Amino acid sequence: MFANMALRNVLKSSAGVLRESGALCSALSVKPWTCGSTLLSGPRVSCVAGGFAVSPPVRHYARAAKKKKTGSDSQLSDLPPTMLKMDYTAVPLAQTTDDLVKRLLSLELASHSEKLELKREQLISKVQRDENDRSSVEVQVAILTARIRNYQEHLQKHHKDKANKRRMLMAIDRRKKILKNLRLVRYDAFEKVCEQLGITYTFPPEYYRRATHRWLAKKAFCIKVFNEVQKQKAEQRLKMKQDLALTDTEAAKTKAVEAQ
What is the pLDDT of residues 84-141, one digit of tens each? Predict the structure, then answer.
């Protein structure tokens, strides 16, 4: 019974507070269904007769558009769209046709593989030894360079493509081995290839090993054993020289005795 009476008193007091707040809103010449920002801070709250009602959340539809990442220029960007495809460059009739046919035969409507093939031929023509050269070391470097740059451009857009990343690393290792051998055999051709294709050759890092106590002790022991072995070999060589000298003197004595 006492609990019911206490609950009724609480409800009456809360109703009185709500009436006073509604009267305050009307006294401040505010619309009866809204409250001014001077009264409430935080989310917008509307004053309804005898209670408060929270307005629905505002949806931010007018968000700023995300800026696209501007990557480096493609190796195919220097190819003009008016250039003919590689299959039609040697055809004289393609130069005299109308504009519509030229547009169909040009790079404007060509696929990525056709543009890449034309770029590969351009790189090969810079370093090949003669017109019929298709298998020399310089040509192999040019083909690998076009392939590597194509993989790099693809990975800038699709950085999670692990298969193409693996192919790119394999091509880089292959080109590095070829350039290393070319640098040892023909240094002038190596410099020409790097200059014409824009390749920066970096030397491999020096061998580095972490110097632990166990490794240092093992290295000192190996050095000690090596020095001892060298001493033994030097003693053996000295003994062999002495034996040869003794045999030479004995042979000379025997010859002198025989001569007498």
Answer: 777 677 677 677 777 777 777 888 778 888 888 888 998 999 999 998 888 899 999 9
Q: What is the pLDDT of residue 70?
A: 57
Residues 105, 115, single domain; the answer is no
Contact indicator for 60, 145 with CB cutoff of 8 Å:
no
**Residue-level length of the chain:** 260
Phi, psi of 252, deg, nearest 5? -65, -40
- Count structural domains, the chain: 3
- Containing domain of residue 18, as a range? 8-54
- Residues 38 and 77 occupy one common structural domain: no
Which amino acid, 8?
R
The structure's pTM equals 0.52
* Dist. CA 91–CA 84, nearest whole Å: 10
Clarify whether residues 79 and 118 are in a common domain.
Answer: no
